């Protein structure tokens, strides 16, 4: 019912990416994204964020995702998009994703 983006898992039940996006998870003030070795496309916006922010590349499982304070998706078409909810969990904070989006928007405007 009303899903915008499915999240893919690899054969080890680790988060890889969305159908058309890369995924970032915020816990506290730390930003995480799946390692490339988990089997995902290293998108352009993902590369920008990993290069410009202190991002921890790690293996992420569903439990970790469900304990997130914030989740955001990236791709070359929409740039950076905060996730409002994951199934029944609603994310109240979008502070870090909106901050990154604002810097990314300025970066794109100056290219």
From TrEMBL:
Q: Name one Pfam family in it.
A: Aminotran_4
Q: Does the keyword Lyase feature in the UniProt annotation?
A: yes
InterPro entries for this protein:
Aminotrans_IV (IPR001544), Aminotrans_IV_CS (IPR018300), Aminotransferase-like (IPR036038), BCAT-like_C (IPR043132), Class-IV_PLP-Dep_Aminotrnsfr (IPR050571)
Instruction: List cofactor names only.
Output: pyridoxal 5'-phosphate
> Which domain of life, per UniProt?
Bacteria
Provide this UniProt record's keywords sorted from A to Z: Lyase, Pyridoxal phosphate, Transferase
As recorded in UniProt, its EC number(s) are 2.7.4.9
Q: Which GO terms describe its biological process?
A: amino acid biosynthetic process; carboxylic acid biosynthetic process
* A Gene Ontology molecular function term of the record: dTMP kinase activity
Q: Which PROSITE patterns match?
A: AA_TRANSFER_CLASS_4
Gene Ontology annotations for the cellular component aspect, listed alphabetically: cytosol
Q: Give the UniProt family note.
A: Belongs to the class-IV pyridoxal-phosphate-dependent aminotransferase family.
For this protein, the record's PANTHER family field holds: AMINO-ACID AMINOTRANSFERASE, AMINODEOXYCHORISMATE LYASE
| Name of the molecule in the record | Aminodeoxychorismate lyase
Q: Which organism is it from?
A: Fusobacterium animalis ATCC 51191
